[in-house]
Design a protein that fits this description.
Blueprint: H1 8-34, H2 39-55, H3 61-95, H4 101-109
Helix pairs in contact: 1-3, 2-3, 3-4
Length: 150
């Protein structure tokens, strides 16, 4: 691997791919929302998107944006499928024993929110936990209880 100073053209080219990936990743959530729910749907969208990205040949602006969008779809749906599949195992690990920074890291990486959401006295971090109060649905608005108070 050789690292060199990027040119303006290479920055612009990668910017098109990254921009396409951001839009594609967001759009993939809309696409999956219209299809039957489940891990297989997410895996299918990820696989089809990845195949489409690999099939696109060319270096023009449209090809780079399309490749980025399809790669973004594949990454987001692949990540969501993996998180959904691993959530029960990771939640069991995180909720066992004492809280730690490692458990918090694992929990957040798995898309489960903060590790302290799995301890008694704390509300779980789920989008539907505060469905009646959408302003409270974010991960930073969860009820916090000091560990010694539980």
């Amino acid at each position: 691997m050789k690292v060199q100073t990027p040119s303006v053209k290479s920055i612009a080219d990668k910017g098109l791919v990254v921009g396409g990936a951001i839009v594609g990743g967001a759009a993939s959530k809309g696409v999956v929302g219209l299809l039957p729910a489940g891990k297989l749907t997410k895996i299918g969208v990820a696989a089809v998107s990845l195949a489409g990205a690999v099939a696109i040949k060319g270096k023009d602006t449209g090809a780079q944006i399309a490749q980025g969008a399809l790669l973004g779809m594949a990454v987001v749906q692949g990540l969501e499928a993996a998180q959904e599949a691993l959530a029960p195992t990771i939640q069991g690990y995180v909720s066992s024993g004492e809280p730690s920074k490692i458990k918090e890291f694992v929990s957040r990486a798995a898309g489960l929110g903060s590790a302290d959401n799995f301890y008694p006295g704390l509300e779980p971090h789920t989008p539907t936990a505060h469905a009646a109060q959408p302003a409270l649905a974010g991960p930073y608005n969860q009820k916090r209880v000091p560990l010694g108070a539980v």
